[in-house]
Amino acid sequence: MEGQQAGEGAGKGFRAIADELRGRIADGLYPLRSFLPSQRDLAEELGVSRDTVQRALRELSDEGWIESRRGSGSRVIKVQRIQSTVPKATRPSRGLTLDLFISEAFEAPEVALDVYTLTSESLSAHIGLQAQRIRRGSISPQKITLRMLLPDASLPLPYPRVKDDRTDTRPLERLRAITDLHTTSLQTALNDLRTEKLVPSVDVRIRHAPLPPAFKLYLLNGKEALHGMYEVVERPMQLEGGEVVTALDVIGVGSTLTHHVKDQDAHSPGSVFVESMRLWFDSVWERLTR
User: Fold this and answer.
1) How far apart are CA 43 and CA 17, in angstroms?
2) Which of 224, 279, 213 has its CA nearest to residue 251?
3) Whole-structure pTM value
4) How far is CA 131 from the centre of its chain?
5) Helix (H, G, I), strand (E, B) or coil at 80
6) Contact 249, 191 (CB under 8 A)
7) 8 Å CB contact between 68 and 74
8) Where are the alpha helices (DSSP H) in 116-169?
9) CB 275 within 8 A of CB 184
10) CB neighbours (10 Å) of residue 237?
């Protein structure tokens, strides 16, 4: 959950690079126990200095994603886990990743996403990838509808916070800045598709609920759900100005997601779960309009 580092151009600060690498790990590009490219190769590919890459890798190491050893490089030691309730015979042969499910959702003529999350960081990255596919002509949805529930900015969230100082508001201010950055990014990415006449109909709506999210929820085209509880972790956190504090934080990209599918049997566990989550989302959404 990182924002742009001041002083480096166009989102190329170490936090943006950490976002990119974290997303690649979550999407399976760098599988568990694999090694990341060298710092030199990453710096060249991403258009930043090696110092920026080193700071990003240090951030991922502090969060427990990678293990870095001098002379050996950086190895992935944690990945996002997605477990599916769908029988193995009908699952895709490649690994289950959030990127896979969102990519499949965008292959439909009409895309409908309902998302409940702490920040819009993960979704922003995936929307950007789908926008690239649309521009390349790989997919051509005719309608995209996104409804996203985020926590109210005035809500005194329990996390993130400095471990030994509940009065320090800087981690929450950092979280809100990150949320604003990524929310603006995904809104721009989707609305540009409509402006450029690549997608005839785009409807992006965001509402803020007085609820601290205990879980992350993606409802995909009314047929599938990805649901996972946030895990609270203790980790070093670098604040603006460079100060590093010990924080209690939640990292959504590291949470385990469970995949549920609605089928023809209205009483099957998957159908019941997807429908119950849809009704819950709709009820919260409608209450926020009153």
Assistant:
1) 10
2) 213
3) 0.78
4) 16
5) coil
6) no
7) yes
8) 121-136
9) no
10) 23
Give the integer Cα–Cα distance in Å for 175 and 186: 17
- The neighbour count for residue 212, using CB atoms within 10 Å, is 15
Task: Please report where in the chains the tokens 């934080």 appear, as a residue.
Answer: 249
Q: What interhelical angle do 50-62 and 39-46 show, nearest 10?
A: 110
Q: Rounded to 5, what percent of the chain is helix, strand, coil?
A: 40, 25, 40
Amino acid at 83: Q
What is the chain's pLDDT, residue by residue, as a tens digit (290 residues)? 333 333 343 344 787 788 788 878 876 778 878 999 999 999 999 899 999 999 889 888 877 788 888 888 999 887 767 777 776 545 554 457 787 889 999 999 999 999 999 988 778 878 988 999 999 999 999 999 999 999 998 888 888 999 989 899 999 988 888 889 889 989 999 999 999 999 999 999 999 999 888 899 999 999 999 999 888 888 888 787 778 889 998 876 666 889 999 999 999 999 999 999 999 999 999 999 76
Rg (CA), the chain: 19
Q: Quote the DSSP letter at residue 35.
A: B
**Quick one: tokens of 99?**
């990127």
The full DSSP string for 191-215 is HHHHHTTSSSEEEEEEEEES---SE
